[in-house]
Amino acid sequence: MLPIGAATETVSVQANPLQVDTQPAAATGLITGTQVRELALQSRNYEELVALMPGVTSDLGGDFLYAGVSAPGGATNETAFSLNGSFGTGNNWTVDGADNVDRGGNFTLLNYPSVDAIDEFKVLRGNYNAEYGRSSGGQINVITRSGKSSFHGGVYEFFRNDVLDANTWENKHFQSPALDRTPLRYNDFGGTIGGPIFIPGHYNVDKSKTFFFFSEEVRRVVESSPSTGIAPNADERGAKGAYNFAFPVCTAPLATDASGNTYCPAGASTTSIPANMVNPAALAYLKDVYSHVNLPQDPIGDTLTSNSSNIFNYRQEIGRVDHTFNSKWSGWIRIMNDTIPTVEGGGLFNSNPIPNVAATSTQSPGKNIAASLNTVFKPTLLNQLEYAWSYGAVLSTNVGQFAAANSPDVVGAITLAYPETLNRIPSLSFGTSLASISGFGDYKDYNKNHNIFDNLTWILGRHTLKFGGTYYHYQKSENAGGNNAGTFGTR
After folding, report:
1. Residue-level pLDDT at 61
2. What is the signed CA dihedral for 429, 431, 432, 436, rounded to 10 degrees?
3. Would you tell me how many other CB atoms lie within 10 Å of the CB of residue 144?
4. Tens of pLDDT along 151-160?
5. Burial class (CB in 10 A: 0-12, 13-18, 19+), 393
6. For the stretch 365-387, what's the b/e string if a residue is b when 16 or more beta carbons lie within 10 angstroms of its beta carbon?
7. Picking from 71-80, 106-115, 132-141, 449-458, which range would have the lowest pLDDT averaged per residue?
8. Could you read off the pLDDT of 403-454 as tens digits, one per residue?
């Protein structure tokens, strides 16, 4: 009989050894596709990875870095990363070498590649080669994934909901009534698939020539942002037939004394204004705008705490085909399309404390097409030729009560000295930002980039020589979406 063997246990730990690249002098950071997909990213936005690099500081306005140009409360999604002390607008962002920056402010992106479609994420912080031109800051490039000789794919969903959250102190601070939990609906789902393109018995039988990769990611995000502002109470809105105030107001033009100080003439100060003394434009604003604003929870200080309704949806498709013609010639073509419809309760590029009346609806489409041809003339002479076309836009319209179509009484009560071209009524300024309401847009911003470049690498003994050239053609057009409609101010 055979004796019973001793029990043994073996634990094997395998890892690729770190490689020290002794050739380039560039300060470089590299994150592999596996690391990108496994790292916990708050917003599943690859921009967040830049903050992991040495010498990088971030000036992001919050925990979330959304796709598109806007964030809750109306803030702008800026690529606010300083690399080795450079300005955030001095960085160059590319995808597969293709330009990916809006050339207006140089701080928003055109496309936001899904982290599940990234094969490599590389950041050059300084001392990079001449082929990386155009910007004085860092160079951030993403390489998208390719198909392999076997089929691989996956699906995913990330889920958040306010039913899983406790209410905040801010929402419960006012007991009569307390605000409900801030609404949140976050669903991020999608999938990837890649593999060979072949026809059994006819084409690419050994699955070594042509490959495909496809990725789609969809987000459905409804998120509200709490805001605190000052809004008129019921008495100030004329609930009792007159417009009553807790403090005296002046019903006559202010007078000026010998020292240049203004004062209310005697007998012109009152706490109750009859309706026939109220300016028709002010009445129109009360009817068209403030009738859609809740009454303040604090009727003495007129403090209103409410939630701004925001929608941040996103859909992206990436398709790529790689082909090897022979041992010397190979190439690929990649198409990327972003659809980013958003609704900003505080207004685009604004953080209005009284939400939803100056709301905007924005589309931020992004498209990117790139094709590359690689040639091995001989083992020591290599060439890469690439063409890329990039497109991005910010198309925003007013959908709240500040849209002219939604406030016909205000439009009828006001005659401006010049044509109004933005489909918007005038903004309101009351001497404090908590009570003021600012509008923006309608806004149309278009960005088109053409880029062609060629890199030739020649290995000569112990030396490596690189030659090449690049050509950019940028076209940027946008309207002035600021204050063409004017502002009513008080003092």
Report:
1. 58
2. -10
3. 23
4. 999 999 999 9
5. buried
6. bbbbebbbbbeeeeeeebbbbbb
7. 71-80
8. 999 999 999 999 888 888 899 999 999 888 899 999 898 999 999 999 999 9
Q: Which domains does the chain have, with CATH numbers?
A: 27-144 (2.170.130.10), 152-231+306-489 (no CATH), 235-279 (no CATH)
Using CA atoms, how far residue 250 sits from 257, 488, 491, in Å, is: 16, 17, 11
Residues 465 and 458: beta-carbon distance below 8 Å: yes
- Mean pLDDT across the chain: 87
The tens digit of pLDDT for each residue in 227-255 reads: 889 999 988 888 877 888 888 888 888 89
- Distance between terminal CA atoms of the chain? 105
Return the C-alpha torsion angle 339, 342, 348, 352, nearest 10: -170
| Backbone φ, ψ for residue 387 (5° rounding) | -125, 140
How buried is residue 74: exposed, middle or buried, by Cβ count under 10 Å (0-12/13-18/19+)? buried
- Number of neighbours of residue 130 by Cβ within 10 angstroms: 8
Distances (CA, A) of 409 to 175, 280, 414, 436, 437: 35, 9, 9, 20, 18
Tokens 């939630």 identify what position? 307
Nearest to 360 by CA among 310, 313, 405: 310
Do 478 and 443 form a contact (C-beta atoms < 8 A)?
Answer: yes
- State the pLDDT at residue 385: 96
194-212 per-position pLDDT tens digit: 999 999 999 999 999 999 9
High-pLDDT (> 70) share of the chain, %: 92
Strand 427-429 and strand 487-489: pairing? parallel
pLDDT at 17 over 80: no
User: Which residue is associated with the tokens 């290599």?
Assistant: 382
Phi first, then psi: what are they for 38, rounded to 5°?
Answer: -90, -20
Backbone dihedral angles phi then psi of residue 456, each to the nearest 5 degrees: -115, 125
The pTM (predicted TM-score) of the whole model is 0.85
More confidently predicted of 377 and 1? 377
3-state DSSP call for residue 290? helix
Distance CA 478, CA 466 (A): 38
Residue 268's pLDDT band, with cuts at 50, 70 and 90, is confident
Residue 450's alpha-carbon distances to 65, 254, 421, 469, in angstroms, are 27, 59, 31, 14
Cα separation, 175 vs 250, whole angstroms:
34
Instruction: Give the C-alpha separation, 452 to 389, whole Å.
Output: 9
408 Cβ neighbours under 8 A, 6+ residues apart: 288
DSSP H or E stretch at residue 360: strand 360-363
Identify the DSSP state of 68: S
How many CB atoms are closer than 10 A to CB 163? 8
Q: For residue 470, what are its two tokens?
A: 């690049």
